[in-house]
Amino acid sequence: QVQLVESGGGLVQAGGSQRLSCAASGLTFSSYAMGWFRQAPGKEREFVAGISTRGGSTYYADSVKGRFTISRDNAKNTVALQMNGLKPEDTGVYYCAARGLVLSTTPSEYHYWGQGTQVTVSS
Description:
The protein is built from no helices and eleven strands. The protein is mainly β. The radius of gyration is 13 Å and the shape is globular.
């Protein structure tokens, strides 16, 4: 079955950096656009960053543009999110998700989800 497994979360100070990784299995990875989403307590899940099937196109939420970078390695079936200049408002559970072919910012349009990894940014 399809599995997406995130890693790399934890506690970091404001202004610091963290790198999240997501390992995919059970799907033709190169046929899926990948997204990172996050959810803070009491808030809806929100789009953070997305990357097209071959990595040629990326898209970011305005709140993370210039600070976060999404990348993928189709040979290793992985997608990463490099987060720099972290702020307390970046705190939340971060999820990777896969959507067939076309990139989207809408959570409900994604077919597969990981279990999430907690990122906590202290001030």
